[in-house]
């Protein structure tokens, strides 16, 4: 990403058409070339060539003009005033296009982008089969840069921690500035300002693109970035010279990361990774969700699920998602595009190298990123290719280790971290492989589990209770053993959210039901495993894994019940009568999950034999002797209404903005009715619209949808009405405002 502040987002007012001869329809970006059904669709429906056109005003002057495309799937050709500029390949990395020599000054210029969304064998991850979909369109932002003849192309804020106490430290900063100059040698002044620190240096700049090391400087008493205190500083880098001035703003976070043998330490504190994998796809529009929705995923992973790590499977993801990971303190394993297949085509392999370079150039300054994944996910050994990717990554960034995700034992180890997709746990006693078995070496090396569960035990949100429980327990067992084994840096489960896939994989409806949440980000029972591990300051949790009905389990019983909670004691009341207060210290826990930070309680008791009177229940969570949370179940649950919750009550009217609305059918104590599948109808009033269909059916008793601003939205109040076929109605008001 070009570092300069001299940029304008040009997402609004594009014209989209399937054919050059069509009139076109006005759209705002991000945009899906084809909105798809939720399931049972042919992925070929979005794999075609389409066209995006925009009139762009260019001022008079002698500036250099650039367009930067953050994400276009899969490749595109660009024309300026009907003149072909070039073709750019790869859907997950930004592409910088200089258009200076092709524009007319003081006039509107026609920008035409021909987008090829087919699965091309010359571009990773394609060439064979892929277990995810690569939805088409210009699905991320497009920027217009107006720059001087000499400008800052990249700023790499390199640093080292000289000393620290775990919270504050002395930081030596060693920024690297990449400058692009069309002019011969010239002298420029560079300045770096961070808070009240400002330093400057004089630099002789050569023609072309070159990197320059800024004079090192030291700052005392700097607050360190950490997962619990993700502190960042505002930084400005300015350049002044005869051929133009430039300024870049960025946020920087300082943290000390050590990964050696079996230890990962952040700012001197040992840490075990507790994470999930994330695909960046959503129902109906695939990849094309705006900033707010991308950020929300990071908030869900950190605050709702309580994770400390996420893997961006299997490609570089939205800059907004990564910014949010920085903001909330969520560690990231980022990797290049690909899935198992390694092509021998020279252009494909060259593209892999380009992906490594573009990923690191774009994301170098994110404190959340702890390793670069430089091996195609689950691919075989390729000494030539992976020697090259590792060498390139280390040359671009010598502050982070490399990793490479494999699924086979004893593959060639060229990276700094041996990362393994370990799907051995099938419900038996075999839960995780040993490091020695996977690496084939007795010598300790950093070892991390990057996938488990997933396709081994796919589970739908609307499955029968016992399957949902077993799905959760499998996640709990693996995470527990990962904490038990000193040789494992941590475990990252497959996966956070369900996702659409090719017909080669998943269920027959083209969905991989591998998530601990469904595609709408609504939790399954397995989400409780992670929620219960979160810091209580983000909220108390008590999640009994039961629907509290005697017909859900074999033999007509409900106990034993696993209760996942971050409370230290729980009480159970049946029919209003206390059956006791239970504490972990008296071993009321599952021994296969005893190494979790907060192991689940396992409760066994009677609540009347088959044919006896049935009662309601309440599970109460304590911290000390104080009641902090409870969960009630009705003995006789009946459909009592719909609960409608929205993520955000304000949207920006002057851009494409979106937010999620979750609808649940609830009983008289507020629990979701898991087998209610009635329809709902959505009405919108004002300058908003529903993404996808306006008539939906509840699945597993709940559903969600996203609403977005219209092409030309105005400030004011908009409304959403949700009507259930059962006669229940709810209404939500949203404020549309302009961005400051």
Q: Could you explain the architecture of this structure?
A:
- The protein is mainly beta and 740 residues long.
- It has five domains: 141 residues, Sandwich (Jelly Rolls); 109 residues, Immunoglobulin-like, CATH 2.60.40.10; 210 residues, TIM Barrel (Alpha-Beta Barrel); 92 residues, Sandwich (Immunoglobulin-like); 97 residues, Sandwich (Immunoglobulin-like).
- It is 12% helix and 39% strand.
- It is built from seven helices and 51 strands.
- The strands form 13 sheets. An eight-stranded parallel sheet has the order 32-31-30-29-28-27-26-33.
- Helix 1 runs parallel beside helix 2 and helix 3 runs parallel beside helix 4.
- The chain is globular, with a radius of gyration of 27 Å.
- The protein starts with 6 loop residues before the first strand and ends with a strand.
- 47% of the residues are buried.
Keywords:
740 residues; mainly beta; Jelly Rolls; Immunoglobulin-like; TIM Barrel; eight-stranded parallel beta sheet; six-stranded antiparallel beta sheet; 7 helices; GH2_Domain-Containing
């Amino acid at each position: 990403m070009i570092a300069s502040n001299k940029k304008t987002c040009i997402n609004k007012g594009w014209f989209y058409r399937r054919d050059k001869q069509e009139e076109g329809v006005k759209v705002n970006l991000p945009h899906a070339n084809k909105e798809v059904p939720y399931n049972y669709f042919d992925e070929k429906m979005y794999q075609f060539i389409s066209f995006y056109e925009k009139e762009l005003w260019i001022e008079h002057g002698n500036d250099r003009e650039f367009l930067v495309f953050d994400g276009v799937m899969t490749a595109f050709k660009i024309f300026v005033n009907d003149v072909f500029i070039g073709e750019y390949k790869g859907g997950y990395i930004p592409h910088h296009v200089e258009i200076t020599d092709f524009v007319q000054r003081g006039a509107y210029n026609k920008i035409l982008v021909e987008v090829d969304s087919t699965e091309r064998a010359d571009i990773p991850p394609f060439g064979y089969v892929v277990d995810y979909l690569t939805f088409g369109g210009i699905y991320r932002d497009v920027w217009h840069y107006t720059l001087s003849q000499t400008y800052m192309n990249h700023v790499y804020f390199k640093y080292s921690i000289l000393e620290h106490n775990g919270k504050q430290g002395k930081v030596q900063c060693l920024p690297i500035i990449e400058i692009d100059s069309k002019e011969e040698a010239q002298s420029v002044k560079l300045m770096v300002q961070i808070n009240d620190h400002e330093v400057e240096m004089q630099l002789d700049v050569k023609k072309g693109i070159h990197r320059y090391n800024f004079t090192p400087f030291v700052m005392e008493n700097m607050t360190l970035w950490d997962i619990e205190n993700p502190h960042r500083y505002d930084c400005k880098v300015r350049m002044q010279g005869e051929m133009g001035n430039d300024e870049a703003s960025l946020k920087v976070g300082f943290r000390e990361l050590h990964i050696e043998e079996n230890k990962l330490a952040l700012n001197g504190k040992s840490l075990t990774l507790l994470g999930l994998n994330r695909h960046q796809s959503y129902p109906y529009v695939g990849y094309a969700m705006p900033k707010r929705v991308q950020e929300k995923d990071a908030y869900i992973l950190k605050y709702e699920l309580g994770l400390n790590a996420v893997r961006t499977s299997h490609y570089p993801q939205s800059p907004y998602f990564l910014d949010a990971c920085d903001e909330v303190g969520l560690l990231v394993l980022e990797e290049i595009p690909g899935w198992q297949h390694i092509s021998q085509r020279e252009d494909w392999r060259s593209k892999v190298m380009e992906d490594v370079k573009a990923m690191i150039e774009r994301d170098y300054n994110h404190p959340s990123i702890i390793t670069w994944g430089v091996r195609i996910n689950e691919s075989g050994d390729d000494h030539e290719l992976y020697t090259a990717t590792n060498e390139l990554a280390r040359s671009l960034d010598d502050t982070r280790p490399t990793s490479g995700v494999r699924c086979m034992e004893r593959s060639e180890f060229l990276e700094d971290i041996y990362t393994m997709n370990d799907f051995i746990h099938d419900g038996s006693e075999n839960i995780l492989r040993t490091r020695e078995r996977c690496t084939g070496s007795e010598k300790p090396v950093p070892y991390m589990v990057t996938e488990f569960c997933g396709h081994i035990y796919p589970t739908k949100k609307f499955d029968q209770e016992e399957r949902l429980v077993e799905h959760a327990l499998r996640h709990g067992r693996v995470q527990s053993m990962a904490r038990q084994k000193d040789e494992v840096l941590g475990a990252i489960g497959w996966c956070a959210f369900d996702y659409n896939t090719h017909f080669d994989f998943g269920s027959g409806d083209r969905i991989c039901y591998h998530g601990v949440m469904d595609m709408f980000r609504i939790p399954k029972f397995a989400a409780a495993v992670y929620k219960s591990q979160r810091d209580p300051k983000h909220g108390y949790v008590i999640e009994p894994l039961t629907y509290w009905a005697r017909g859900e389990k074999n033999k007509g019983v409900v106990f034993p019940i696993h209760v996942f909670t971050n409370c230290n004691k729980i009480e159970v009341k049946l029919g209003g009568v206390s059956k006791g207060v239970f504490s972990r210290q008296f071993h009321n826990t599952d021994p296969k999950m005893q190494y979790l930070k907060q192991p689940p309680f396992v409760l066994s008791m009677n609540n009347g034999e088959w044919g006896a009177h049935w009662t309601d229940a309440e599970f109460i969570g304590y911290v000390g002797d104080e009641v902090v949370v409870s969960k009630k179940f009705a003995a006789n649950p009946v459909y009592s209404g719909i609960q409608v919750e929205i993520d955000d009550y304000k949207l920006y009217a002057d851009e494409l903005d979106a937010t999620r609305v979750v609808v649940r059918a609830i009983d008289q104590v507020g629990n979701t009715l898991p087998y209610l599948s009635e329809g709902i109808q959505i009405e919108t009033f004002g300058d908003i619209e529903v993404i996808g269909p306006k008539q939906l059916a509840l699945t597993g008793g709940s559903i969600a949808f996203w609403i977005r601003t219209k092409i030309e939205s105005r400030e004011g109040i908009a409304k959403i009405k949700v009507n259930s076929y059962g006669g229940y109605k709810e209404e939500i008001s949203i404020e549309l405002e302009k961005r400051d």
